[in-house]
Amino acid sequence: MARGGRTLNLGKGSGSGMLHWLGLAFILLMVDQFTKVLIVGYYHLGDSTYVTHFFNVVRVHNSGAAFSFLAGAGGWQRWFFTVIGFVAAAVIIWMLKSHPGQRLFSFAMACILGGAIGNVIDRLLHGYVIDFLDFHWRSWHFPAFNVADAAITVGAACLILDELLRVRRTR
Question: Quick check: is 32 catalytic?
């Protein structure tokens, strides 16, 4: 493509590849924040709506990390997890810049980036993360989570898949 007499390189290693992945992270971040705004607007803490026999929408505040890890630690964990989120975001942006042509890897990184920033925003605004997706089956109950958590989980699964495929290709 030519623009102003210059040729734009849209291939591997170009900045536009990184922008594509940052755009995906931004979309995931916006969906996460929008759903949390809806939950805060329509639910009080602890309110729940039955949706199906295995899923409810519920408003939960998580001051810890995954599965409420360190939730009762006294408040320092808010800043600890916020700093971890910022450091992770910086490392992920650097990795996206370094590997924009690796599609599965970059997809995974974009998912993790969008989710991490979504939860950092919650910690900065509220002091906790807003969770609302509540899955259960008979006596089994999964801890409530949100869109950011789902994006991070999908990203982590894709990272594992990417590594398995990379190892398989080298054999």
Answer: no
